[in-house]
Structure formats: structure tokens, C-alpha cells
Design brief:
Keywords: Hydrolase, Membrane, Transmembrane, Transmembrane helix
Organism: Kitasatospora phosalacinea
InterPro entries: Alpha/beta-hydrolase_catalytic, Alpha/beta-hydrolase_N_dom
Structural class: alpha/beta
Pfam families: Abhydrolase_9, Abhydrolase_9_N
Number of domains: 2
Number of helices: 20
GO molecular function: hydrolase activity
């Protein structure tokens, strides 16, 4: 009996793959080379090829099983001929797909302004690396199957065979999901957070503690320099001075206000875990308002509430333009809600939801107490996960956003942004999903290029104005699980100018391609992928232009910020 069990185990773990499984793996592997949103480095292509091939392997194995059940077994000669045919056709398909992929990658690189040439020896490594990764995935799957079979035998001693099979499958599924989500994923997230927390204690070279009382972390601040965290120190340490602003405008200027609260207490020790609860967020929001008031932020012309990314980062290209537009008579406030970078925080975006609402509600409550004729113009902004956090502060939709703020800038929004989703779903017929027109562009407009602000042509753009910056090739904007089973609208009809016309949707395959594109979203020139360059300056000049501001002023500001990042 023990020998039979061991032999069965060897049959599961060591047996050769079936014809259908190999055919499915080859087909999906070749499809993984087809064009996606962005050019991929060879190692990401290898990962995409391995994962998609593993899915093809599973599907091929399933259909092969059905064929064996429904059809009589083929003779040895037929099976041998089938394997020879698969070797010939599959080998030719792999070689052809690899060769064509070099051309496709060149087209993608050209579309985003990159050198179309690729390094041939790196691309030659894709197949062996993908084979290794794919084999590891298959071995893991077979190990799970082996465990399920043994569990079925154990249960079969006490219950009928059908019940043992169902129970073993259910228990195996629970254990695998529990291992991945409860142990593996949570363990990796905890490890990443501990590492990020250590990084958060560092300071970027060139960033020094500010002396101006208008900045958090200064000697006059309620928040210590150590408490701000790495991204908070970057934010306040990069603020332009009144002299720098005057050097651009030629007019007297003020030191701008930048208020920030980090994830650490005032003396630099870490918050308790409870500080990330609703009560903890409320406390940090209260402190952000107190810091803003101390620095005189409620006495400025404009006040911007910034949604941060996971690690508390604020893009300087979103923060600085407002300060130059208003001669430094501005205030900006933000706080940190996680140590993790945005692409990891996206898995736990509930923190972003609560953080954005807590900060905005606290600022708006204090702002509402001010005399109506002496309040600053209140605006909101955020990039990526920060745009999601910002939108979640307005459950009443666009009407609440435009009714309670003087403007909004939302850059590289996620597919879960609720306001963007509503606006996109309710766009006017004929406008594409990547550049939707909502209510004739009366308040809300989408842009990738400066010319997009004029869409729809001739339509009045009323105040307050809301601008979404979203690149057609930004995977952060378009990644969502439905890519597994449904063709996205951004591949239907007219496409954005930087999306390859040769890109096609394939079930499962496109999902993993766009997932890999996320990792390469910053490795492209500005204006493509998740890089928005100086478009925020163009947007702010249209959202909240000071009196007398012209397009020539905008061009000069953009050129200045390009030279003074």
C-alpha cells in the first residue's frame, strides 16, 4: 500500500505534462509577447511570459482532461505524431513571437519617445528565465494537488469518497488562500512596512531643516523635524523661498506655508497602532489644522489640501506652481498615513480613504468658521493614490466637490476613484473613455496635452474647475481585475495617441501584461506612463489663474520650473 501511495505521488509530481497542457502553455506564452501599454524590459517580459504560460498550462490541462473523458484514447502512433507536430509548430511559434516582439517593443518605445532599439542578448534570456519561473509555478501547483490527494485518502477513512473529495478540495483551497493572504501576503506587507519605516527615518541629501516659521519642522513649528518622516521632510525642505519666487515674478513675494504631519509623534517616537484608526486619523488631522493655523495658512489667498501617496509623498510639480502663481501667498497642507509606497498601499487603500476624508473635513470645518469675505480660496489636489484619497472626501460626488472647493487637480487617478468613475460612465456619447466629456466640460475636463483643455471646442469652462490629468498609456489609470475577462473600453474605437494600434485584448494575458506595465510605469519619458511632467503647472494656471494671468505667463512658468525642479 505504501509503495502504491509513493508511486501515486511520483505520478503527480514527476509525471510528464500532457499534450493539452503544453499546447496551452505555448499559446499563452506567445500571446504574452503581444504589445501592451508600455515597452517592457526583458525581465518583466519573462515574468509575464511565465505567469501567462502557467494559466495556459492549467487551461490546456483541463481541456485535455475533458478530451480524455469524452473521447477514446488515441493510439501510440497518434500521440507520438501529436507531440512531434506540437514541437514543430510550438517551436516555430515561440521563435516567431520572440522575433516579432522585438519589432513590437520597438514600436512601443517609439510611441513614448524612446530609442526603439533593444539589446538582443537580453531578449534572448526571456525564454530560459520564463521556463524556470513557469516550472516553479507548475511544481507548486502539483504540490498542492499531491497534498489534496493525500488529504482525501485520510478523510476517506471516515466519510464517503465524494464527501472526502469535496472536503479535501475545500480545505486545500482554504489553506492555500490562507497561506497566500494570511501568511505570505501579510508577512511580506509587514516586512515591507518595517523596511519602509526604517527608510522613513532617513533624509534625502540636500534637504535641510527649514528656518522659516511658515514651514513645518522649523524651530517655530509644533511638529518636530524628526516627526515628519522622509517624505514630509522632502515636502517642507523643498519649498521655494520668497526670494526665489520674486526672482521669477519680479514682484514682492511671501514665504509660502507648508504644513505637514508625519506618522510619528512630536518627539520622534512612533505612533501606537491605534493611531491609524479613525480616532488616530482625526488626531493627526487636528494637528495638521493646528499647524496650518500656527503658520498663518488660513490668512493666505489660496489654501490647497493635498492627498498624499502611501508613503506620504507629495509631487513638487503639483505643489510649487500654486506658490509661484500667487507670489507665495499660499498654503498647502498634507499628512502621512502609511510608510508603504503607493503600489503596496494600493492593496490596503482603506487607509487612503479614511485619511483623505479626515484631513479635508478637519480643514474645511475650520475654514468654514472664517468670515466669508476673508477666507482663502480652498482647493484640493492629489496624485495617484493621493487622488483617490482626495476623491473619497466627497461622497456627494462632483456636485459636492465643486460646491465646497474652489478647484481640484487630480493626477494619474486610479480605476477605483469614485468621482472619476462616475464622470467617465456618464460621459457624453462619442467621447472616448480616455478623454471623456462630461456635461459639455462645464466644470470637469480631462487632459494629457495642453491642447486637451480646449475640449470640447468652444464650450464655456466655468469656475470652479476640476482637472484630471491622465495619460492614455498610464497603467495606473487602466489596471483593474476586469481585464481578465472583459475587453476594456480604452482599446475600443479611437485610441489615445500613445497607445499602440497593434495592442489587442486577450483573456488573462492582457491583465498580466498591464500588471507588468505597472512596474515600468515610471521608466518612460514625461507625458507617458505614470509620468506627468509639468502638466500640473499647465493645469493650475487654468484651474485658478490669478487676475491678469496670460498664456505667456503659463509658458514662462513651465519653462522656469523645468529649469528649477
Amino acid at each position: 500500500m505504501a509503495g502504491a501511495t509513493a508511486a501515486g505521488a511520483r505520478r503527480i509530481v514527476r509525471r510528464r505534462p500532457g499534450w493539452g497542457a503544453v499546447a496551452g502553455a505555448v499559446l499563452f506564452y506567445c500571446l504574452s509577447f503581444t504589445p501592451s501599454l508600455l515597452p517592457r524590459p526583458w525581465y518583466l517580459q519573462a515574468a509575464a511570459g511565465a505567469i501567462t504560460a502557467a494559466f495556459g498550462y492549467c487551461l490546456g490541462a483541463f481541456f485535455g482532461f475533458l478530451a480524455r473523458v469524452c473521447c477514446p484514447a488515441a493510439g501510440e502512433r497518434v500521440r507520438r505524431a501529436g507531440w512531434w507536430a506540437l514541437a514543430a509548430v510550438g517551436g516555430a511559434a515561440v521563435v516567431t513571437a520572440t522575433a516579432w516582439s522585438v519589432r513590437w517593443q520597438g514600436d512601443l518605445r517609439r510611441a513614448v519617445g524612446m530609442d526603439p532599439r533593444t539589446t538582443w542578448w537580453q531578449w534572448a534570456l526571456v525564454l530560459p528565465v520564463a521556463l524556470l519561473l513557469g516550472a516553479l509555478l507548475v511544481l507548486c501547483a502539483r504540490a498542492v494537488r499531491l497534498g489534496t490527494r493525500r488529504l482525501r485518502r485520510i478523510l476517506g477513512r471516515a466519510v464517503p469518497d465524494w464527501a472526502a473529495a469535496a472536503g479535501a478540495a475545500a480545505l486545500a483551497a482554504v489553506l492555500v488562500v490562507g497561506f497566500v493572504e494570511g501568511f505570505l501576503l501579510r508577512g511580506l506587507l509587514d516586512l515591507a512596512e518595517r523596511g519602509a519605516a526604517l527608510t522613513d527615518r532617513s533624509t534625502t541629501p540636500g534637504i535641510v531643516r527649514p528656518a522659516s516659521p511658515t514651514l513645518s519642522g522649523s524651530p517655530a513649528s509644533y511638529e518636530s523635524w524628526a516627526s515628519l518622516g522622509a517624505k514630509g521632510r522632502d515636502f517642507v525642505g523643498s519649498a521655494p523661498t520668497a526670494a526665489q519666487i520674486s526672482g521669477f515674478t519680479g514682484r514682492p513675494a511671501k514665504d509660502p506655508v507648508r504644513a505637514y504631519v508625519g506618522l510619528r509623534s512630536v518627539d520622534g517616537t512612533e505612533f501606537e497602532q491605534g493611531a491609524r484608526s479613525a480616532a488616530g486619523l482625526q488626531e493627526r488631522a487636528r494637528r495638521a489644522v493646528a499647524e496650518l493655523e500656527r503658520a498663518g495658512g488660513f490668512r493666505r489667498k489660496v489654501l490647497v489640501v493635498l492627498g498624499t501617496t502611501g508613503s506620504g509623498w507629495v509631487n513638487e510639480r503639483i505643489a510649487k506652481p500654486v506658490e509661484y502663481l500667487y507670489d507665495g501667498d499660499s498654503a498647502e497642507v498634507a499628512f502621512q498615513y502609511s510608510y508603504l509606497p503607493s503600489w503596496i498601499s494600493f492593496l490596503t487603500e482603506g487607509e487612503a480613504t479614511d485619511a483623505g476624508k479626515a484631513l479635508y473635513d478637519a480643514v474645511h470645518a475650520r475654514w468654514s468658521q472664517l468670515p466669508a469675505d476673508s477666507r482663502p480660496r480652498l482647493m484640493v489636489a492629489g496624485e495617484s493614490l493621493g487622488s483617490y484619497a482626495t476623491e473619497r472626501a466627497f461622497p456627494g460626488g462632483v456636485e459636492q466637490l465643486t460646491g465646497q472647493t474652489g478647484g481640484a487637480l487630480l493626477v494619474g487617478p486610479t480605476p477605483d476613484n469614485p468621482l472619476r468613475e462616475t464622470v467617465t460612465d456618464r460621459r457624453q456619447p462619442g467621447s472616448p473613455v480616455w478623454r471623456p466629456v462630461y456635461r459639455d466640460g462645464r466644470n470637469v475636463r480631462f487632459a494629457q496635452l495642453p491642447s486637451d483643455f480646449a475640449v470640447p471646442p468652444g464650450a464655456a469652462w466655468e469656475q470652479p474647475r476640476v482637472v484630471y490629468l491622465q495619460n492614455g498609456s498610464d497603467p495606473v489609470v487602466w489596471w483593474e481585475p476586469s481585464l481578465i475577462w472583459r475587453e476594456p473600453e480604452w482599446l475600443e474605437g479611437q485610441r489615445a495617441h500613445d497607445v499602440s494600434p497593434t495592442m489587442r485584448w486577450y483573456p488573462l494575458v492582457t491583465f498580466w501584461q498591464v500588471t507588468c506595465d505597472l512596474a515600468a510605469s515610471e521608466a518612460v519619458p514625461e507625458g507617458h506612463g505614470h509620468r506627468y511632467g509639468l502638466m500640473p503647472a499647465e493645469a493650475w494656471a487654468r484651474i485658478a489663474p490669478p487676475e491678469g494671468w496670460t498664456q505667456q505667463d503659463t509658458d514662462r512658468l513651465v519653462a522656469y520650473l523645468a529649469d528649477h525642479p
